[in-house]
Amino acid sequence: MIISAGFTITKAKMMKLTRGEAIDFHADHQAKPYYNDLLEFLTSGPIIALEILGDDAIHRWKNVLGPANSSVARTEAPDSIRAKFGTDGIRNVAHGPDSFASAARELELFFPSSGGRGPANTAKYTNCTCCIIKPHAIKDGLTGKIIKSILDGGFEISALQMVTLCFLPSFDFSSEGMGT
Q: Nucleoside diphosphate kinase-like domain location, by residue (predicted)?
């Protein structure tokens, strides 16, 4: 649904939030009656953070998500992500920032520009292997189908991260290449 809505996913990372990270993430909801339930839910298992790019991304993403309460979304926006996959106002599948400032703050939390690591990943490192989804499959919008087929095959995905590999031409360290 993300790709078909005209967005590009440029970063992705599976992680497990600590209570402190969940508090930082949803500081704006602190006065809400459901705040503690929200924190408990956000820290109950892994989450996947995505950087989604597209024209007017914040507004358009909110439309793709639908109303925050999934029950309301099923009535008001039946084709939305929350209507199709959510269960209520807390377990509403996905989040979307309400402003550019919120988006910048949230992206910095999950994908720090300072070179920091952000929240810990969820990798188990035992009895596991590595899967790399190659660029053509990502460009063709096949990532979700590939992940679904891995899960349908009985595998568990314990960690996920999207990275961009850069090709750098090799440097000639021979004496001629060094200018000596």
A: 1-118
Its pTM stands at 0.78
Cβ neighbours for 43, distance < 8 A, ≥ 6 positions apart: 16, 17, 18, 19, 22
Nearest residue to 90 via CA among 49, 51, 32: 32
β-pair partners for 12: 50
What's the structural domain count of the chain?
A: 1
Q: Is residue 168 part of a domain?
A: no
Structure tokens at 57: 């991304």
Question: Which of 41-45, 48-52, 175-179 is predicted with the least confidence, judged by mean pLDDT?
Answer: 175-179
Among 26, 29, 59, 95, the active-site one is: 95
Instruction: Look up the domain containing 17 and give its range.
Output: 8-122
Give the tens place of pLDDT for each residue, 76-130. Answer: 999 999 999 999 888 899 999 999 999 999 999 988 887 766 777 777 777 888 8
Query: If DSSP codes are grouped into helix, strand and coil, which group holds residue 170?
Result: coil
Residue 26 annotated among the catalytic residues of the structure: no
What CATH number is associated with residue 54? 3.30.70.141
Measured distance CA(51)–CA(95) in Å, rounded: 12
Residue 118 in contact with residue 124, Cβ under 8 Å? no
